[in-house]
Amino acid sequence: MGRLLHHFRHRVRLGAWSGRAVAVLRPGRPRGLPARLGPSGLPDRLRRRLRLAAVAVRSRAEAGMSTAEYAVGTIAACAFAAVLYKIVGSPEVRKALTDLIGRALKIAG
Predict the structure, then answer these.
(1) Which pLDDT tens digit goes with each residue over 64-89?
(2) CB 33 within 8 A of CB 44
């Protein structure tokens, strides 16, 4: 609990209903206290920022696809397009689509 309170500044104000003093916690450290130094000698806030920046850089490095993955994805998309073209180009599907469009135009018109 003491460590948590170290990261908050206390501000005292009067409570709206009771008129008694109420402690309010705000982020930061109490004014006048020096920044806490970690084992590396850097302030905690700076170490935290550096750690978050390193995580962001590492996650961006793995974000995209490599050239080989693009090639496999492109071949798969072409194969799917060829299969879809064969299915839609068949006489049965063409007739079903034509009938569907005809019924939609009759309803609309």
Answers:
(1) 667 888 899 999 999 999 999 999 88
(2) no
